[in-house]
Amino acid sequence: MLSVRNISKSYVDHKALDDVSLDIRKGSIFGLLGPNGAGKTSMIRIINQIINQDEGEIFIDQKKITYDDVRKIGYMPEERGLYKKMKVGDFLLFMGKLKGLSRDKCIDSSADWFENLEVSNWWKKNIEDLSKGMSQKVQFISTVIHNPDLIILDEPFSGFDPVNANLVKKNLLRLKEEGKTIIFSTHRLESVDELCDHLAMINNSKKILDGNTDEIKMNAKSDTYILKHDKKIESNDQLFDVISQNKLSRNVYESELSLKKGKSYRNMFSEISKDIEIISFEQKVPNMNDIFIMKVEEGKNG
């Protein structure tokens, strides 16, 4: 759906993006990650033609992006922009008309989203009376009111409590099932684990990670295993070390074991199970927060 080719961008003496390329598949949820100042927002603004890149090109549906394409994108910036002296309904009518919708279509689309986000009877509310989370919902509705095929969200969960964050996630998954393509930048990395099919990580203006989310997690796994068992385990000089061990109940322990280099987990399992009943056994796979921290630290040390 969207192809970013060799994008570079500098501000005076600061390099925000350095030869970054991305491919975002149609009908997927794509996470754009990185610490503050990494270049994520610059990339999003370039895609939306708010600022110009110094080098590189953006393609949408295999054609160079135009301002008409941008008009069809649903974009929610990190800096929210509601007109506080307006009523919710008037604001949504205004935003819908900017996207080319008729009054009737604006009203119908708003009503559908009011139901989806559980905010009935908001049409006549004053925006200045809304809480931060309520304002976020209105901003989100204004982003998707014109039913865009490409939706770009910068920190979409900021301001939401856990209940409303889950409600928005549910709707993002529904939009994906409808064939929409969603790009979002976030620091809430648990959302990446839950939502994203693919991701890219930017640090110090460069792309340092890119690919399928599950494959990235599996490639980052270590030889560490989590076991539940009925008796205490001691380290084995030849096979494994016990990193931690907790007694969960009278006959159940949970242990984290580190397999020694070059050794097989099958041999470890076989050795342990000679004297101990193993209730569960799984390899520890890092979550996206672990990988994020690891990659950023690698950049510092590199």
Describe it for me?
This protein has helices spanning 40-47, 67-71, 88-98, 103-116, 132-144, 162-177, 189-195, 213-219, 265-272, 288-301, and strands spanning 2-11, 14-24, 29-33, 55-60, 63-64, 74-76, 150-154, 181-185, 198-203, 206-212, 224-229, 240-249, 252-259, 278-283. It contains 10 helices and 14 strands. The relative contact order is 0.14. The mean pLDDT is 89. It is of the alpha/beta class and 302 residues long. Strand 7, helix 6 and strand 8 (181-185) form a beta-alpha-beta unit. The chain has 2 domains: 2-218, 3-Layer(aba) Sandwich (Rossmann fold); 222-284. The protein is globular and about 75 Å long. The chain has a 6-stranded mixed β-sheet, sandwiched between helices.
